[in-house]
UniProtKB/TrEMBL annotation:
The organism's taxonomic lineage, starting at the top: Bacteria, Pseudomonadati, Pseudomonadota, Alphaproteobacteria, Hyphomonadales
GO process annotations (BP): coenzyme A biosynthetic process; pantothenate catabolic process
Annotated stretches, region: Disordered: 108-128
Family to which the UniProt record says this protein belongs: In the C-terminal section; belongs to the PPC synthetase family. In the N-terminal section; belongs to the HFCD (homo-oligomeric flavin containing Cys decarboxylase) superfamily.
Function: Catalyzes two sequential steps in the biosynthesis of coenzyme A. In the first step cysteine is conjugated to 4'-phosphopantothenate to form 4-phosphopantothenoylcysteine. In the second step the latter compound is decarboxylated to form 4'-phosphopantotheine. Catalyzes two steps in the biosynthesis of coenzyme A. In the first step cysteine is conjugated to 4'-phosphopantothenate to form 4-phosphopantothenoylcysteine, in the latter compound is decarboxylated to form 4'-phosphopantotheine.
Protein name: Coenzyme A biosynthesis bifunctional protein CoaBC
Catalytic reaction equation(s): (R)-4'-phosphopantothenate + L-cysteine + CTP = N-[(R)-4-phosphopantothenoyl]-L-cysteine + CMP + diphosphate + H(+); N-[(R)-4-phosphopantothenoyl]-L-cysteine + H(+) = (R)-4'-phosphopantetheine + CO2
Amino acid composition bias (Basic and acidic residues), ranges on this chain: 109-120
One GO CC annotation: phosphopantothenoylcysteine decarboxylase complex
Keyword annotations: Decarboxylase, Flavoprotein, FMN, Ligase, Lyase, Magnesium, Metal-binding, Multifunctional enzyme
Shown residues in whole-protein numbering: 178 to 404 of 410
Pathway: Cofactor biosynthesis; coenzyme A biosynthesis; CoA from (R)-pantothenate: step 3/5; Cofactor biosynthesis; coenzyme A biosynthesis; CoA from (R)-pantothenate: step 2/5
Source species: Henriciella barbarensis
Region (Phosphopantothenate--cysteine ligase): 15-227
């Protein structure tokens, strides 16, 4: 049974999306990462594909299956994610859902760090800043996607931080979510959408519902109804 007939609203559009955490190696067996499950990003990728978009999903390591009809590119580190995004451009839309690790160990060891190495005690962690994928793509002079959407995971003063983050990143929209509760890895999400028209608070709903609603909004914007 076809749910919809006729042309889909994102037919012929290419959407690039990042999701999941990144993993930054400390040595061959250890890494720095975060609690992102990839669920919200994967749901958005699936919802965009259902609206007819060609979706490139650049994903860090997650334990969930790729949604139907998307092109999955699997990466581990932030630098690999950046390179995979650059390789996948051009795109009409970029949606940056990944929880990119802000820092990576500066000089990962090529052999496992040993507990009793030279009686030195715990090694000091020296960190370097990772590339900012969202800022880089937002500020492309040539070939910037026409709509760039960032996410902001905040634990406090959510709206205020989101407004500031939108300006700092140079993106068009920010989807802000409050991660002070059980959102990371959980089934629900409560978000605020920040656009140039202001802030919209969406009621708490499942991650699939958030994804569908966001995909619809993206389609409206591209087709000229949302502006
Ligand atoms: N992001 C990115 N590359 C990074 C860091 C973040 O593309 N190196 C993107 C995320 O995918 C998200 C947005 O930037 O869409 C905001 O990420 P967030 O971690 O909330 O913001 P930061 O600028 O890293 O600031 P902070 O972690 O201090 O809140
Ligand atoms: Ca961050």
């Amino acid at each position: 049974l076809a749910r919809q007939s006729g042309p889909k609203p994102l037919e012929g559009r290419h959407v690039l999306l990042t999701a999941g955490p990144t993993r930054e190696p400390l040595d061959p067996v250890r890494y720095l990462s975060n609690h992102s499950s990839g669920r919200q990003g994967y749901a958005i990728a699936g919802a965009l594909a259902e609206l007819g978009a060609q979706v490139t999903l650049v994903s860090g390591p997650v334990s969930i299956a790729s949604p139907r009809g998307v092109d999955l590119v699997s990466v581990e580190t932030a630098r690999e994610m950046m390179a995979a995004c650059e390789a996948a451009l051009p795109a009409d839309v970029f949606v940056s859902v990944a929880a990119v690790a802000d820092w990576r160990p500066s000089s990962p060891a090529d052999r496992k760090l040993k507990l009793k190495d030279e009686g030195k005690g715990p090694p000091a962690l020296s960190l370097s800043e990772n590339p900012d994928i969202l800022s880089t793509i937002s500020r492309l002079e040539k070939g910037r996607p026409q709509l760039v959407v960032g996410f902001a995971a905040e634990t406090d003063t959510v709206e205020e931080n989101a407004l500031r983050k939108r300006a700092r990143k140079g993106c068009d929209w920010i989807v802000a979510n409050d991660v002070s509760g059980d959102v990371m890895g959980g089934a629900d999400n409560e978000i605020a959408l920040v656009t140039d028209a202001g802030v919209e608070n969406w009621p708490r709903m499942g991650k699939t519902a958030v994804a569908r609603r966001l995909a619809e909004r993206i389609a409206e914007d591209l087709n000229g109804k949302g502006k």
